[in-house]
Amino acid sequence: MTTSEAGAPPVLDVRGLSVRFRMRGGRYIRAVTDARFSLAAGERLALVGESGCGKSVLASALLGLLPENAETAGSAVLSDETDLLAADERTLARAIRGRKVGLVPQSPAAHLTPVRTVSSQLEETVRELLRTPRSSLRAAAEEAAERAAFPVDHLDRHPHELSGGLAQRAATALALIGDAPLLLADEPTTGLDRDLVERTVDELARHTGASRALLMITHDLAAAERIADRIAVMYAGRIVEIADAEDFFGTRGPRHPYARGLLDALPERNFIPIPGTPPELGALPEGCAYAERCPRASSECGAQPVLVGGVACHHSEAGVGAAGAEGGAAGADGGVAEADGGAAGAAVGAAESREPREPREPMESMEAGHA
Amino acid sequence: MAEITEPAWRARGVRRRSTRTWRIRTSAVITLAVGLAVLLVPPLVQLDEQAVDLAAKLQPPSLAHPFGTDDVGRDLLLRCVYGLRVSLLVGLVAAVVATVIGTAVGAAAGAFGGRVDRLVMRLVDLFSSVPHLLLGIFIVAMFRPGVWPVVISVALTHWLSTARIVRAEVLSLRARPYVDAAISGGASRVRVAVRHLLPGVLPQAGLAAVLMVPHAVWHESALSFLGLGLPTHQASLGTLVQSARGSLLAGDWWPTLFPGLFIIVPTLAIAGLAGAWRERLNPRRRSELML
Amino acid sequence: MLELDAITAGYERGKPVIAGISLTVQPGESVGLLGPSGCGKSTLARVAALLHRPDAGRVVIDGTEAGGWRHRAPRAQRTAFGVVFQQPRLSADPRLTLADLIAEPLRANGRSGEPADKVREFAARVGLTEDLLGRRPHEVSDGQLQRACVARALILRPRWLVCDEMTAMLDASTTAALVHAVESYRTETGAGLLAVGHDRVLLNRWCDRTVDWSTLAS
């Protein structure tokens, strides 16, 4: 579905992006580890995962909005070679946010200034980003509103006088003004009604069009299915699967056991939760972080799986035969989760199975981080 | 891969705290120095701040008397330290009393709501409608000059703002779903107030108390300056400035300047620390790790 | 049986958010209440759980009319309801550890003697591991915190559960886990459920019957 011409650089190329937080006592919390993906113009990528898996941290890293105790590694390069991770605050504020990366916020009500009308906020952004002369500000604001299907006769209202859907459109209108090639939507549908979710993501799809790229971060799989061409699944700070949306939601289905579990938990599917809870980002196991909850876990899972062919799993659907491991692998390492209610036991079992592994051969792309 | 070679980490996040850190450190150093001075100097030095030396009256600052001497030859540095001790004590006690009254009244108004709330807040409005220096003067005037009337006067005029802050905070906490959950769990009114509401407002109340110390010191100084506060022989920052008025007209600046600085600098330092505390109190809506 | 009879309620005098709404939940029944945001379904849920005093109408719980609302409701009636709200961050006292949060209803009812085991039992029911119990709300994720809130709602063994958009902020797996926790509790105790939400697929899957707000309000 990618519409970029051959050879054109991707709108966003994320290579080995990692984020960790320095905590008291010299501890580190690894919120994002070695994320890599790229986005071409016209592409819509949904990054999905449980709360606390690090997906919002990844978004904040791309916008340069991490708190002070955060450290990053790797790079996130825009088509003009700007590295979002290396750029200083001045550059981010003047040249990137709004101009190259537009943010569609999680909570439009909090994103809009409550004491000012929508038009005054649109006009301010238009003036800042486009340097529009004062005389034509109003016209530009109306144009911006129309692009986001925000009714022009509501422009002089304050945010609290708008319905949830209109507030979302107002926030989207703000995000679109700078005509940024990359749109970043952080949980744009949280707390919205199903109808409104569908309308919001349809509008986001429309705004992405053929010229922009969209990165949508969400825990709402239905919204992701509706909008995305590609799905990236994040677990415990790592992207464990990245696949075409059609395959992912279609008959082939996800290949990573976690992604399969996540889809299986949907009420329109089997409605069966994944047993256990995600591991702590401050105490990640040596190997595959999902092993303690995984029905396929085996001794192999003590080593960190590498993202190959879009999936990072020793026992992925396609990789079962190739890896030479039997599919079931029950009881191999004590890290096998029981079907129901065995969360505590499974977590303990996995905690005990963290023996050190011998280092594996180095992989390519060691250059990440020196952009 | 991240496990094999540790990636090249770089610190992220904006360093915008440098002036703030500087401010906090300066405030902390001054507050610490002031605290040590008022606590340690009187017992250690054992000099008589009241020692009159008419031969050395109104001397400008010198090595022997770094702050100079007053009109009866008393050493001003020593008088300032003793004065600060009295003023801080008055300010501290008054602030604590005012905070306790204000918190109790505000919490009661917020927790009970309805008629109690309306009655209490009308009372607060009534008190606030009188300029509080005037009210303070009125209260002091009813007693003989001394430390306690000043403490009472300052405390009784300053609990109003705390009551307002605490009430507003209690009202906002009371509307939280966690209070609903507590009620549904069978918690009594008292339990909700003591276990869920009060702990939520105590940091705010504590902050209000610290912020009130400088204010109370200024009030003590103002009352004493007007001759209504502490008796003139008792060195407080207010009485020092007051008794220096005469010499200022004669061109002797030091008896006014140094006590004045002693009012301003320590109180600003305390306010600076309180400001830092206030920044820390900003509620963390999202989790600490932004997860 | 939980009967809501001609409930009119709101937050300002003369401006009712809901007017004349009636709804009945049979013992052991689960009813999903489906409606768009802002329609007043949360207000109805709060009235049902005796947390908001209606301007008019009656709430009858197992044959006894509600004696009052909030603190005025008799403790036995209040604690007959377990409530779970949409936003775990706002539903948890930020100063309590998760263990204290779950044990709070026991302590509020003078049953301080039994928490430790009970807390562990109910934490396990909602899939909370023990290492999380010592943490405070800002140290856990939304999903983990909501699990604790569900445990808190269940720990007094209420006969009725009111879940107001319980899973709106949660991912698919946590949603399924919490719904399963609630359902296994209901199978065991025969408690009735009023689940308020806007996700039709979820409520249809979860509840015995789903009521559309528009049919109630007409």
From TrEMBL, chain B:
Membrane protein topology class: Multi-pass membrane protein
Residues annotated as domain ABC transmembrane type-1: 84-274
Cell compartments where the protein resides: Cell membrane
Pfam families found in the cross-reference section: BPD_transp_1
SUPFAM superfamilies: MetI-like
Keyword ATP-binding on entry: no
Alphabetized Gene3D superfamilies for the sequence: MetI-like
Name of the protein: ABC transporter permease
Gene source species: Streptomyces polyasparticus
Organism lineage string: Bacteria, Bacillati, Actinomycetota, Actinomycetes, Kitasatosporales
Automatic annotation (TrEMBL), chain C:
Matches recorded under InterPro entries: AAA+_ATPase, ABC_transp_ATP-bind, ABC_transporter-like_ATP-bd, P-loop_NTPase
Pfam family, one: ABC_tran
Source organism, top-level taxon: Bacteria
Gene3D superfamilies per UniProt: P-loop containing nucleotide triphosphate hydrolases
Keyword terms: ATP-binding, Nucleotide-binding, Transport
ABC transporter domain residues: 2-218
Keyword Acyltransferase: no
GO molecular function, one term: ATP binding
Name under which the protein is recorded: ATP-binding cassette domain-containing protein
Organism, scientific name: Streptomyces polyasparticus
Taxonomic classification: Bacteria, Bacillati, Actinomycetota, Actinomycetes, Kitasatosporales
